[in-house]
Amino acid sequence: MLPKSNSSQQANASFSMDDFAKALEQHDYQFQKGQVVRGKVHSYESDGAYVDIGGKSLAFVPIEEIALNPVTDLSALLPLQEEQDFLIIKEQDADGQLTLSRRQLQVKQAWDKIAELQDNNQSVNVRVSGINKGGVTVDVEGVRGFIPRSHLVERDNLQELIGQNLTASFLEVNSETNKLVLSQRQATRSASFSQLELGQLVEGQIVSIKPFGVFVEFEGTTGLLHIKQVSQNFIESLSALFQVGQPIKAMIIELDEGKGRISLSTRVLENHPGEMVENMAEVMASADSRSGRAAKKLFGRE
Fold first, then answer.
1. What angle do CA 186, 187, 193 make, to 5 degrees?
2. Predicted model pTM
3. In angstroms, rounded to a whole number, what is the distance separating the alpha carbons of residues 249 and 266?
């Protein structure tokens, strides 16, 4: 039997020695724009820093891509030999160098966090950074957001809000258009609703009288005592029965957080029809015990 030719072995050896590196270069597809990579800070330049991410060449982070805020000390943010995550924002140039961003990765992570908070209907603490004609600008996880004047609790003197921390909830979150709109009033309302329940007796004061009912302010929120819920008897004029600033007790009979509506009733506290008109003082004085009976009857509460 003839000895096996070693020509194929030579070919394989030739390929592994001569072409392996070139093959790797041709298929160096592991680094792509938009990819998150981990690298070790190698050295500094006046306009940025070089990072070793295991590529053919050191990658570069321009100084404007290092942090969300202006950089004054590179070494504080990118200590030498420390591993950090970066986002590839520009693919390899003629020299095989990638361009990285730490800032854009932070922005991406911030938007992801904001989206998660919105999905969970969570409120956030935000710092007012500035004002404009329509409201105030705020900082949320490093992202600039906006609270319209109509969604602020204090709308008269916006200048005084600068530097203050507010609790707000999300109205619109869109990372593609970089649009982030929040509401302080909605967050305040949600916090108030979480403390309320059907059948609860609340004590507040009348802040407005309308033909259809009176608005009662209590515990930082406002409820409506509709004219039909004042008494079992017909009420001809609410202004003849109530006045602004008058203290009043009433029971919560409806809660609609989506519409921001709290419906109140004193009708359910009456022992007989018309008692609110005939002897309101007595109804208010014994409202606590009356509300217990009414809540049990209406909602099965003790």
1. 85
2. 0.57
3. 7
The conformation of residue 68, written as its DSSP 8-state character, comes to S
246, 276 Cβ separation under 8 angstroms: no
**Phi, psi for 27 (deg, rounded to 5):** -115, 35
CB atoms within 10 A of CB 84: 17
pLDDT tens digits for range 264-296: 999 999 999 999 999 999 999 999 999 999 998
Residue with tokens 């969300």: 68
Please state, in angstroms and as integers, the Cα–Cα distance from residue 167 to each residue in 4, 188, 256, following that order. Answer: 81, 7, 21
Both structure tokens of 282:
């007595």
Residue 55, both tokens: 């590529």
H/E stretch holding 53: none
Angle at 252 between CA 249 and CA 292, to 5 degrees: 70
CB 284 within 8 Å of CB 244: no
- pLDDT at 132 (0 to 100): 87
Among the listed residues 37, 28, 32, the one whose alpha carbon sits nearest the alpha carbon of residue 91 = 32
Please say whether the beta carbons of 70 and 80 come within 8 A.
Answer: no
- DSSP letters spanning 166-207: EEEEEEEEETTTTEEEEEHHHHHHHHHHTT--TT-EEEEEEE
User: What does DSSP assign to residue 66?
Assistant: S
Domains of the chain: 35-101 (2.40.50.140), 121-190 (2.40.50.140), 196-299 (2.40.50.140)
Distance CA 110, CA 114 (A): 6
CA distances from 182 to 118, 161, 300 (A): 10, 15, 38
